[in-house]
Structures are given as structure tokens and as C-alpha cells.
């Protein structure tokens, strides 16, 4: 299980040392991937300025063909279109699911946002069915909110 408070502290330390969002996003993905055996693929997608597409920023796990995802498509694009995190216990039941690998059974998307603005999202795949719960979502949200602080600062 990820120690989200610890990661948030690391991210804050990195900010104070002057690191930018690029480094923070990469650090978060690595920390999440290494923290939990259920997290078999961890990536960050960022929303383009025109808010039409999600572009893969960085990931750990098997290579994926989904480098760009239109808003409204797949679990990732649905999260942005609805402005809501997604917990998909069985990906085979999700209408319009974009498959990365047949091994993936469940998926969670947590938005990276500040105020009304969505910057992007964490996307996590698991080879276990029903791998994710509210505790995962809360942990991911803590980390996402810290990243949003930095992304908002760089946007100004
Ligand atoms: N499954 C996602 C696509 C991205 S991959 O999981 C890396 C979706 O349906 O949006």
C-alpha cells in the first residue's frame, strides 16, 4: 500500500528544491508503481490546452499503444468528460474500454485538478479483478492534489 503522506512530503521537498512538474510527475509514477503489487501499470496523462485529448506523460509497466486518448473515450477520456474519478472493477464490462493488455482486469483513474481546472490524471491498471477501493482513491487523490498545486503554479 502506498504511503501517500510520505510521497506528498517528498513532492513538497522536491518543489522547495526547485524541481518542476515534470520531475514530480515522474517521481509519483515511480513511487506508486513500486509501492503496490496490485499496481501493474501506472501512468500519468496530461490534458492538452484545447482540452480535447489526453497525452501520456510518463508510465511504468508494459508499453502501451494509447499514447493519446480523445476526451470522452475509454476509462481515461470518460473521467475527464464526466469530471469524475473512475473505479472500474471489471474492464470487460466497461463500454468503450481501450485495452492495453489482455492481462489487465481492473482500472482506476484519479484526476489531477485544482479548483475547476483538470490538468490530467493518474491511470492505474491491475491484473487483479476489483483491485481498487476507496483507500486507493484517497491515497492517489492526495498525491494528485499536490501535483496539481505545482501544475497550477507553472500555468500562471
Ligand atoms: N484503459 C485505458 C487506456 C489507457 S491504458 O490502460 C494504459 C482506457 O480505457 O482509457
Give the arrangement of secondary structure elements.
Blueprint: H1 4-16, H2 21-35, E1 41-47, E2 53-60, E3 68-70, H3 74-82, E4 86-88, E5 106-114, E6 117-126, H4 134-155
Antiparallel strand pairs: 1-2, 1-6, 2-3, 4-5, 5-6
Helix pairs in contact: 1-2, 1-4, 2-4
Bound molecules: methionine sulfoxide.
Explained architecture:
The chain starts with a helix and ends with a helix. Strands 3-2-1-6-5-4 form a 6-stranded antiparallel β-sheet. The protein is built from 4 helices and 6 strands, in the order ααβββαβββα. Strand 5 and strand 6 form a beta hairpin. With 156 residues, the chain is of the alpha+beta class. The chain has a single domain, classed as 2-Layer Sandwich (Beta-Lactamase). The structure holds methionine sulfoxide. Methionine sulfoxide (SME) binds next to strand 1, helix 3 and strand 6. Methionine sulfoxide binds next to strand 1, helix 3 and strand 6.
Which hetero compounds are present in the coordinates?
Answer: methionine sulfoxide
Low-confidence blocks of residues: none
> Count of DSSP E strands?
6
What's the shape?
globular
> What is the strand content?
25-35%
Spatial order of strands in the largest sheet: 3-2-1-6-5-4
Order of helices and strands: HHEEEHEEEH
Task: Kindly give the count of domains.
Answer: 1
Distance between the termini: 34 Å
- Summarize the main sheet: 6 strands, antiparallel
The total of helices stands at 4
Overall mean pLDDT score? Answer: 97
How much helix is in the residues? 25-40%
Amino acid at each position: 500500500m502506498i504511503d501517500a503522506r510520505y510521497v506528498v512530503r517528498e513532492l513538497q521537498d522536491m518543489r522547495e528544491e526547485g524541481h518542476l512538474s515534470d520531475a514530480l510527475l515522474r517521481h509519483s509514477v515511480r513511487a506508486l508503481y513500486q509501492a503496490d503489487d496490485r499496481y501493474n501499470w501506472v501512468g500519468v496523462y496530461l490534458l492538452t490546452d484545447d482540452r480535447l485529448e489526453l497525452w501520456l506523460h510518463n508510465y511504468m509497466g508494459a508499453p502501451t499503444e494509447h499514447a493519446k486518448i480523445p476526451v470522452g473515450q475509454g476509462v481515461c477520456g470518460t473521467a475527464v468528460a464526466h469530471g469524475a474519478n473512475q473505479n472500474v472493477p471489471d474492464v470487460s464490462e466497461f463500454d468503450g474500454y481501450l485495452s492495453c493488455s489482455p492481462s489487465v482486469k481492473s482500472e482506476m483513474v484519479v484526476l489531477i485538478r485544482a479548483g475547476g481546472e483538470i490538468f490530467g490524471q493518474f491511470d492505474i491498471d491491475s491484473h487483479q479483478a476489483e483491485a481498487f477501493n476507496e483507500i486507493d482513491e484517497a491515497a492517489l487523490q492526495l498525491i494528485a492534489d499536490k501535483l496539481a498545486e505545482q501544475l497550477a503554479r507553472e500555468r500562471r
